[in-house]
């Protein structure tokens, strides 16, 4: 968008005190685009490797189960659960509910907690699953 | 055009004739992702193993291949819409924005096609248990 750079802009991001609702909002975008790129490519890589054959699949498994691979998979699962929870928050907001300041703040904090708890439960089941 | 009531003007009668389609499709595919990706994650952690034979045998089952294909459609459609919004917000140059949306379309359709083809190949040539 063309604009005259000598003219001042109205204050925007820099003047607001950060709150949970702002953090959950930008995290929705960050997690969504992370999943859309790294997550979707990883999923297609996994499927393609399985379709190509045992050797290609072994390469995928080697990468996925390396320390960096686990870091990426744990990160992606957290991104997924975080995006899922903030997405559900969007459905509530779409209905016109949950805009009261206190409600909005507590649900935003709840989204972060739920995203983290679901990720921990998911990986606890994978690592210690048979004990449950 | 309506003869003057406010509701008449907004019921699909604006210059674009529509407006909520992108927003609604984002929600429809969000529900699709919610169901299908959770199904994938729960399936993966319940499989006896994630080695080549287990995974190929599992995907070859039609009751797995079909939801998996639907999941790819839902995921890539949803990310196509979401990344479009992100690009529209951050890439202000008209020409560059056009190029980004063009590449996004290639990515979304290409990625979905690759994933669906992989599933189809496994389903048609793999060995269902």
Automatic annotation (TrEMBL), chain A:
Gene Ontology CC terms, in alphabetical order: membrane
Transmembrane regions: 30-48, 68-88, 109-128
Pfam family, one: Sdh_cyt
Listed GO MF terms: electron transfer activity; metal ion binding
Keyword Metal-binding: yes
One biological process term in Gene Ontology: tricarboxylic acid cycle
InterPro entries hit by this protein: SQR/QFR_C/D, Succ_DH_cyt_bsu_CS, Succ_DH_cytb556, SuccDH_FuR_B_TM-su
Keyword tags: Heme, Iron, Membrane, Metal-binding, Transmembrane, Transmembrane helix
Keyword Aminoacyl-tRNA synthetase: no
Textual note on the cofactor: The heme is bound between the two transmembrane subunits.
Signal peptide location: none
Family, per entry: Belongs to the cytochrome b560 family.
Quaternary structure, from the entry: Part of an enzyme complex containing four subunits: a flavoprotein, an iron-sulfur protein, plus two membrane-anchoring proteins, SdhC and SdhD. The complex can form homotrimers.
Annotated protein name in UniProt: Succinate dehydrogenase cytochrome b556 subunit
Source organism per UniProt: Sphingobium lactosutens DS20
UniProtKB/TrEMBL annotation, chain B:
Keywords: Cell inner membrane, Cell membrane, Electron transport, Heme, Iron, Membrane, Metal-binding, Transmembrane, Transmembrane helix, Transport, Tricarboxylic acid cycle
Species for this entry: Sphingobium lactosutens DS20
Function per UniProt: Membrane-anchoring subunit of succinate dehydrogenase (SDH).
Cellular compartments annotated: Cell inner membrane
InterPro entries hit by this protein: SQR/QFR_C/D, Succ_DH_anchor, SuccDH_FuR_B_TM-su
Top-level taxon in the UniProt lineage: Bacteria
Membrane topology label: Multi-pass membrane protein
Oligomeric and partner information: Part of an enzyme complex containing four subunits: a flavoprotein, an iron-sulfur protein, plus two membrane-anchoring proteins, SdhC and SdhD.
Keyword Transmembrane helix: yes
GO MF annotations in UniProt: electron transfer activity; heme binding; metal ion binding
Gene Ontology CC, one term: plasma membrane
Pathway: Carbohydrate metabolism; tricarboxylic acid cycle
Taxonomic placement: Bacteria, Pseudomonadati, Pseudomonadota, Alphaproteobacteria, Sphingomonadales
Residue ranges of the TM segments: 30-50, 56-77, 98-124
Descriptive protein name: Succinate dehydrogenase hydrophobic membrane anchor subunit
Biological process (GO), any one: cytochrome complex assembly
């Amino acid at each position: 968008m063309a604009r005259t750079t000598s003219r001042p802009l109205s204050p925007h991001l820099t003047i607001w005190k950060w709150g949970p609702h702002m953090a959950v909002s930008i995290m929705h975008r960050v997690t969504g685009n992370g999943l859309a790129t790294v997550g979707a490519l990883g999923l297609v890589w996994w499927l393609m490797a399985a379709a190509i054959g045992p050797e290609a699949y072994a390469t995928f498994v080697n990468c996925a189960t390396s320390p960096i691979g686990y870091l990426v998979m744990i990160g992606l699962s957290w991104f997924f659960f975080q995006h899922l929870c903030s997405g559900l928050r969007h459905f509530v907001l779409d209905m016109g509910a949950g805009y009261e300041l206190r409600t909005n703040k507590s649900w935003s904090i709840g989204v972060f907690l739920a995203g983290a708890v679901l990720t921990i439960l998911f990986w606890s089941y994978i690592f210690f699953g048979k004990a449950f | 055009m309506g003869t003057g009531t406010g509701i008449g003007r907004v019921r699909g009668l604006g210059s674009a004739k529509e407006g909520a389609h992108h927003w609604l499709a984002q929600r429809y595919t969000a529900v699709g992702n919610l169901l299908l990706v959770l199904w994938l994650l729960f399936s993966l952690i319940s499989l006896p193993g994630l080695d080549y034979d287990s995974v190929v045998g599992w995907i070859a089952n039609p009751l797995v291949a079909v939801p998996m294909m639907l999941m790819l459609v839902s995921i890539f459609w949803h990310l196509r819409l979401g990344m479009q919004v992100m690009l529209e917000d951050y890439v202000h140059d008209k020409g560059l924005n056009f190029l980004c949306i063009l590449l996004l379309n290639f990515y979304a359709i290409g990625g979905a096609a690759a994933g669906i083809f992989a599933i189809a190949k496994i389903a048609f040539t793999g060995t269902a248990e």
